[in-house]
Batch of 2 targets.
Target 1
Amino acid sequence: MDRYAVIGNPIAHSKSPRIHTLFAAQTRQALIYETLLGPIDAFVATVEAFRAAGGRGLNVTVPFKLEAFDFADRHTPRAQAAGAVNTLAFGPDGVLGDNTDGAGILRDITVNLGCPVRGRRVLLLGAGGAARGTILPLLEASPATLVIANRTAAKAHELAAEFAGSSHAGLIGCALAELAGLQFDVVINATSASLSDAVPDLPTGLYAHGSLAYDMMYGKGDTPFMTAARQQGASRSADGLGMLVEQAAESFLLWRGIRPTTAPVLAEMRASI
Ligand code: ATR
């Protein structure tokens, strides 16, 4: 059977094996998907051993997404833009590196949550790896504006400048305080603030009528960002579990050429957390 795995450190609690096993059963694909614990100083050796043992592809998570980028022989445009790889596909012509995170969040927002991005005002909070990975897919969805706001303003300016060349109008980088007086239809929290149960310090009045607040993090119940956003006027809020399932579906499509139906898998994952 074709072998796949998710490599990370730590990795034991990854939900990816369950998600991909459900995808495989649904699409009748004969494959095995496991976890692979990567020693911090031995990513390349671990990946090479997996590939030599017949592995066909890997998902890559913290802290190896940059090393995975360097490991790949070729990159998809979205991986190139993200500067990080979460999906490796081993083929006869080498190792392809892809990044499905941005496509995953876009699909969760636009399809699962039924919230259009085209022509809307979008705010991306954060300027780290998680934010960077979503910028190209967001821009390709043609929002009216995309504002990248970060606690450290310089990093937001740098990111916006980097993507400005892609000729998309309305791309701005700024500090969180500079958001005062602006309104958005979609607000995405790509900061790591939730890891410490914190929320970004935002001016009031950001949320337009009918707006969606989206947290890339997820957990049991609402995240602190979701709760704060609704208190500040967001009409709806969602966590990142749908993004997790959708980025997995996009990886599955790359490897197997077939897109699984995500709704039943997302429902099962939701019930299990
Ligand atoms: P990741 O790869 O998850 O994006 P990262 O590269 O460390 O992680 O980036 C973390 C992001 O969350 C940064 O944009 C960080 O802001 P700074 O650049 O100012 O450090 C942001 N962040 C973390 N904690 C935050 C908090 N409490 N409030 C606002 N932003 C926060």
Target 2
Amino acid sequence: MNTPDILKQPVTTLPGIGSRTAENMDKLGIRIIQDLLFHLPIRYEDKTRIYPIATLSAGTTALISGRVEFIDVLPRGRKSLICRINDGSGSIDLRFFHFTARQYTVLKPGTLLSCFGEVRFGYAGLEMVHPEYNIIQHADAAVTETHLTPVYPLTEGLSQTNIRKAVKQVLDLCLAQPKILTDWLPEPILIRFQYPALLAAIQSLHTPEATITLEGLQNGSASALKRLAFEELLAHHLSMKLAKHKAKAWRSPDFSTDHGRFIAPFIDSLTFTLTAAQLRVMSEIALDCRQANAMMRLIQGDVGSGKTIVAAYAAMLALTAGYQVALMAPTELLAEQHYRNFNAWFKPFAARVDLLTGQIKGLPRKEALQALADGSTKIMIGTHALFQDEVNFNRLGLIIIDEQHRFGVHQRLALRAKGQQGDVRPHQLVMTATPIPRTLAMLQYSDLDISIIDELPPGRKPVTTSVIPSARRTDVINRIDNWVANKKQAYWVCTLIEESEILQCEAAEITAERLTAALPNVRIALLHGRMKNSDKEAAMLAFKNHHVDLLVATTVIEVGVDVPNASLMIIENPERLGLSQLHQLRGRVGRGVDDSYCLLMYQSPLSDNARQRLGILRDSNDGFLIAEKDLQLRGPGEMMGTRQTGMVNFKIADMVRDAELLDNIPPIADALFDDNPEAVAHLIDRWMGQNTNYSEV
Ligand code: ADP
Ligand code: MG
């Protein structure tokens, strides 16, 4: 199989890779042959040169060669075999905790050895513990490698040798048949940035020349690494451009009819005055909806800035033009809250609003689906259950996605096809409270137009935030007692490890029990994701109606909880969460007339970085600033909070390390888009081919 398609074949196509190995490779994201090329080493070992022993220092990993001076078994500390070797410049001990009698006889004084290992401080100066070693005849024989040795990320069941061999096979294949791997970056770009050609770049990262500096390979300044990161970022940007370009061919529902009839009374019916920012964004939406192409707009606005009513306005435009609306929220809690609000807002206009989540089953579900399909339901609110095949709209004109950062980019793009009739596609409005730094927005949202609500409703007071150690838990509990005695309400948020929902819920249950014991005068309710829907609703309602004083919850309340009388929030272990998520959680308080407080109760000891991060939250209530600082404080490779930004996972690029590459990308993408559609298609396919079928989007 010598066609370019060979790289798309499963790894089992390679000789020597069976289904067991393939399963293990799958855990590393390696599925097709091409994935091996982009599975880069995490570090390298240098076995290309011998270091004089005198030049070694603790922490270096090095190849040395020398003669055995003496050998002994020392009982001091743990029993170990010590073998001192000397190369004329100095001596070093080799230490073996596990050894055999044979080793003792073979390593006799005078024997010439080559050793490779990490140098550390031992009892008697520098030593190497369990180095790799070989008995050699000449000092020259110590050097066996002409290139640096790659060390790959592994998973259980795979060895370095497995991966090295597999990668080598693919590299050999590409070298023998250069057509297999076409370089789609235009020559002038390679010249301009002094980037190596694709295969050369890949090859030099897997088997670097001995002359290259290890540092450059590791910190990303190596041109080979830069080139690949650049190509990947370019491909992501191109895929967004392509999505936008394709969207231009769709027609969209015309919402320009009959504006006066409902819109003005709708706005008049609100109990508050819209902010200037809300009005501005509404007019941007109205303008979009009169264009021939579908609206694709992102509303960015800090938590509490009032995005929901803007979405309701867009829904009203759709309704008056005789279309249905789908509103998707990331959690059932938020979907239910929207359902209540939209019901209240649309009741006077006799528009039927309905709710569809995974928990609505049986007859009610059947009826809901029927009413949607025959057009009697005008606004359908739900979780991602909305986009299942069984859900059929009668005349869908607008899709609204709330808290879009909770959904992946690919998910969002895939949703667009829903509701398509012929070449007519619904308008789309997506909302997020997590501000995306400009650089990220370029990769993620460049297919969307962006509106920003940069103003909070009047009368909002900033939340006063303190950072306190959990040693002061008792004080905090007393504070809740006083707080509740003053007829106010509070939240207690248990975070624990975010990935483990079960543990998080258990922690909340235990905390609720303990607080109930400690606070006999406080009415406490529990809310977490694994409770039955009816129990969740009951807890929420009781809190809203002030039949409950303290809500002990997991991070499920991050979105969609709006209880103005709750003005104190305690967040346990805030150091475990990303700043934007903490900011979003904190946004649950500060919604009423009272002064509001947020206590970040951390577990000691706090790392320097965590201290700095929590400090940012204490000092600022500005979501945009917090997001920028959050990114700055992350080190390369640290993708904390990726879920919050709905950020795509890169194979090679790193948002922090490679940020400087981004500025060059838009103009290059524009040029490529106009001049070389073939390259565009191949680049997208190479880097994102398995994620999404973009031709469907
Ligand atoms: P978010 O942008 O976080 O989604 P919401 O839409 O949930 O914010 O609005 C937060 C709260 O502010 C809600 O209770 C909403 O009714 C209220 N609100 C929205 N706009 C205004 C306004 N212009 N004046 C006063 N309150 C408002
Ligand atoms: Mg909201």
